[in-house]
Specification:
InterPro entries: Ankyrin_rpt, Ankyrin_rpt-contain_sf. This protein is mainly alpha-helical. The protein contains eight helices and no strands.
Length: 137
């Protein structure tokens, strides 16, 4: 499930869920990331939708205290098909996670928060959204 979510293979993610694969299982190879962490990190919005609908926890932390929203804000770089420009951030994934109840003030072990990462990365739309929705400033 983890590799399928990382690579954007949404049909495989759907098949694994249908076969009973747990959606919140931490990956022991990579600091306890979940499939949702991988999908959020790479901005795979369709997989984020599928996993959330299947009960994925938007607030499950890895060993560094990062949630899928923190992975999206800190990395969030979708893989583009060969020959196409790579997009640097997936606002769709950000909004899906927040609407699913992702904590907007959740710090990681380095005291980074979604707002801090949004400011550092220049994601002004996300900064405005987070501040408007009560993020600690």
């Amino acid at each position: 499930m983890h590799q399928a979510a990382e690579k954007g293979l949404f049909h495989l993610v759907e098949a694994l869920i249908a076969a009973g694969e747990p959606v919140n299982q931490p990956d022991p190879r990579v600091s306890g990331w979940t499939a949702l962490s991988y999908a959020a990190n790479w901005g795979h919005g369709e997989i984020v939708r599928i996993l959330l609908a299947a009960g994925a926890n938007p607030n499950q932390r890895d060993v560094y205290g990062r949630t899928p929203l923190l992975h999206n804000m800190h990395n969030g770089r979708p893989r583009a098909p060969e020959g196409e420009e790579r997009v640097e951030f997936s606002a769709d994934t950000f909004h899906q996670l927040v609407q699913a109840g992702a904590w907007i003030d959740c710090p990681d072990s380095a005291d980074g928060s979604p707002l801090i990462y949004a400011v550092e990365s220049g994601y002004s739309e996300c900064v405005e959204y987070l501040v408007a929705h009560g993020a600690d400033v």
